[in-house]
Amino acid sequence: MPTKILANVKNTSISLIKEYNINDFGAKGDGKTDDAVAIQKAIDACTTAGGGRVVVPSGKTYLAGPFKLKSYVEFYVALNAKLLANPNEKVYTESAFRANKGEGTLWISANDVKLVTITGGGIIDGNGISFMGAELEDSFELKPFNIVDPRPHLLTIIGGENIRIHNINIRNSAYWTIHLVGCNDVAITDITLLNNLKVRNGDGIDIDHSRNVRITNCYIESGDDAICLKNRREYEEYGPCESITVSNCIMVSRSCAVKIGSENMDKISKAVFTNCIIKASNRGIGIQNRDEGTVEDIVFSNILVESHFFSDVWWGKAEPIYITAYRRANGNNKDANWRFPKGATVGKVGTVKNIYFSNIKCTGESGVYVSAESADKIDGIYFDQVDVQINKTTNISGGVYDRRPSQVEGLVKSNIAAFYFENATNISLRNSSVTWGKNLPVYYTNAINTKNVTGLKLIGFEGTSTSPGKIKAVNQIP
Fold first, then answer.
1. What's the pTM value of the predicted model, to 2 decimals?
2. Which residues of 65-86 are buried (b: 16+ CB within 10 A; e: fewer)?
3. Which Pfam families does the record match to this protein (predicted)?
């Protein structure tokens, strides 16, 4: 097939980039014909020749079923070009989670690749609504399935090295959008990721058993978690998730904008989140440990968080900051359960320790929530300049803390404090404050409420209860 050679001139040196236009390999771009075979031919030719640029050219919509990226390929979706997932569920047959076939399939994927780039300024569209059931008030029903859930994950890279995703518009995924498994040296920059906010499981970016990942200058809207760090059991051989930075991002989520967990069978550590804005979200920042893995050495700084209630379809109760450590509910003896170690139906939960929050400004309908099944599971949580403003702004009932999914009661009715700490060790609250708004239901009470907390330090705290003189500002229960 013909190729185009581009010459880049810089400092009198010339480098040649071979360009592989998918039209030259038979793509139609009529929005009706499945062009996956042509796209795959172009990718195969590019990598076989030693690498280059595979171009999805401007001006057309290219419908496509599943295809695989390969090493040394720059996948270039040009401005005013759209790559659209085939809505035919039957073409999606490869599971996104290996032998676990009940959590989606693969659309664009790659295995054991090096030096892969996705860019171009165009649109990659997962056609998500085509895979949904009936539209509800704030979500879509999920279609029933037998063994294989055909909803495609938009992009899955497993065992990738030196991955670059930048200057691209990604939207409308039917399941997870960008899923990086066992990857090393990844940069995701300057992307716009817009999923339908009613699509359940529509995560934005999932960093899974990966390391040395940088996410910067991105705008993400997602029904489920916007950015999530985790360690799925299906890919346990890839080891811990560590050395992650997220900066200068804006996020919206019906679930949790920044999430760590809930799947974590290894270790998540050494992550920094800074200079971000979270708005119109259910939860803001969440650490949700439910498995035997640990979470440690995480820093959150310079973040604005706006949270409010959504229905119980979505996990969360408007918590701007949420840290919990509970083992998940027992499994089923009859079927394979991918949430537990092989052969097990009862799990355990690892520790969460050394978590730092600095200069976090929170506004919303609930307060900071820290809770564990026992005090040894959460150790060393540091809040410095964390300011919480609480006001009731929706018609959805509150007075509830959400511990789902867990072995204990999931939705717990309770008075709501600006800072609620339960079963934890060594919590420090410095130079922080609480401000109450004008619309205050009776379940809003203390500025700080603690139960079974050892090593609590309060330094320079400002704030009152909702009824000074009647309700304690700080309520400590041994």
1. 0.96
2. bbbbbbbbbbbbbbeebbbbbb
3. Glyco_hydro_28 (PF00295)
